[in-house]
């Protein structure tokens, strides 16, 4: 199945809805957030103190050469700077605290959302996409936005206070300075449109890079055995080259702002110096006014010259917020209905009635599946590869929902049961079982977190793992590595069986649980499976027909349809039967 890089489940939200979705994450910390922003007001406003203090100092000391110099001014400047520095530290701390809390809460919500999304979501999106959208976007959104908001607020109030100093010293020169400032900031309105497409493409390519790393890690043996190093490197190089081109395109669309603002600022300063000289000569303003004005103007223009870069970062954060909101707005397709009932036990039968299913609604994988399985019996499902065997059993725990028809347990449609109780009654052993990093004990207890030592010991014994575990220095607390990489294939399967055994679910699904093992490992694992199957309703998918000859019912499926069923002998007795053909193909030697 092809994987998409776009969230097809999430329709585009109206602009303001993105921020409504994010509001619950901001609300608990709104007081601290406002306090952090409020602290930025005096931080910015105090920038005007130095410029304002220069007027009396220049007029009294340097122009009038009076010995009655205002000695308090240098001390006042130092005092204000200390206050400003203290506020700056407090604002930085509060911003980091608020940003960290919001980031943590959003990541929690996204990870929980990820855990409850249906299998179809994972079919459509690769690992890089998941990591980028569910983790990296959060850092870009929360931390980047809060840091830049602090910067913008301090600069806004710095600008307002400095504009006040400009007007106080000379309203005539202020007109020139403010007109230049407005002209300089006008291009910012177009910046979002200019960079949005580049940012979205960059996110897509970044997710592909993460997938490359993930595939290289998990596929390292395949890469080595097939000498795929150059081929895999070529794929990576293509993506990294695209990222380079996108970064250059981003520079092309944003870097012009800084030099442009430098030029505009220099025009403003030049105009002020020229006209200011005239005003000094005709006595409209004093030298102190002029020096104070120029100082305020330089303090005003300096941060403005670099505001383009910060504004770009803010736009990146806003776009990341929109992407996060789209994910938070996704509604899982497979959930418990409000009226759902608990499934306590399985006593009668499991029934597939007129079941049709397709991963893509236009293309059915299963067609008109009708099957009754009595509780406590074993049903084997066999057939050619790609016929739909694994798909049938994946519908029972609702990894996917049927396209049409019903699956019922003891007469209850499984969609009318709570998802948690349904899955609590089903244990699944896959061909390639996923083991979590941690110890043997950790993985077994996933089947039953409150299991006693006696129950764990029993599960090990029934899975033929007891001797192996007792031979380890750390026993049950032995670390098995990521995905059980420190265990053999047979040991991984037996650990998965122990996990399923301790769950003690009345329904067991064995999805080609021994097909990837050698004969020796298969023999031991098959004994463990036989123990697991006792007194349970069992579905077995197997290629090796020798492992299912004693099943109560064998279902042969081909091209998504059941073409025959019966026990081993009944199916062998059918002339030109599909099962007989499969059997003869495997045992003709």
Give the overall shape, derived from the CA principal axes: elongated
Structural class by helix and strand composition: alpha/beta
Strand sequence of the main sheet, in spatial order?
A: 6-7-8-3-9-10
The strand count comes to 10
Write a structural description.
By secondary structure, this protein is an alpha/beta fold. It contains 22 helices and ten strands. The protein has helices at 15-26, 30-45, 47-63, 72-115, 119-124, 127-169, 171-185, 188-218, 220-225, 229-254, 257-281, 287-305, 307-328, 389-395, 419-424, 440-445, 453-462, 466-470, 489-503, 519-533, 568-572, 578-587; strands at residues 349-357, 366-374, 378-382, 404-409, 412-413, 426-429, 507-511, 537-541, 553-558, 561-566. The strands form two sheets. It has a six-stranded mixed beta sheet, with helices on both faces. A hairpin with a 2-residue loop joins strand 9 and strand 10. The longest helix is centred in the N-terminal third of the chain and has 44 residues, at 72-115. The chain is elongated and about 120 Å long. The two termini are 36 Å apart.
What structural keywords apply?
about 600 residues, alpha/beta, four-stranded antiparallel β-sheet, 10 strands, elongated
What is the gist of this entry?
The protein contains 22 helices and ten strands. By secondary structure, the protein is of the alpha/beta class. The radius of gyration is 35 Å and the shape is elongated.
